[in-house]
Specification:
The structure is a single chain. This protein is mostly helical. It is built from 4 helices and no strands. The chain has a domain of 50 residues. The longest helix has 29 residues. It is globular and about 30 Å long.
Length: 78
């Protein structure tokens, strides 16, 4: 899980922006779930699962803005 998260963190900014598009935002939802499992944080896992269903509609905009401003997805850090 940590390897997957590190691999996504190491991607160039333009690839991260492409992954923020509505249909592809599921990659960031899986990232959130993997990070939650890696940190043993059940709340993050549940929020990551919810992001799969809601992220493609409106929440992808939060990811896009966050990537452009901070080069990180919109998420809570443990």
């Amino acid at each position: 899980m940590k390897g997957f998260c590190k691999a996504l963190d190491a991607l160039p900014k333009w690839v991260k922006v492409v992954l923020c598009l509505p249909v592809l935002d599921i990659v960031w939802a899986i990232y959130r779930i993997a990070e939650g499992v890696g940190n043993k944080n059940m709340l993050h896992v549940v929020l990551g699962i919810l992001w799969i269903f809601v992220g493609g509609t409106v929440l992808w905009i939060l990811d896009l803005v966050s990537i452009l401003l901070t080069n990180r997805i919109f998420w809570f850090k443990a």
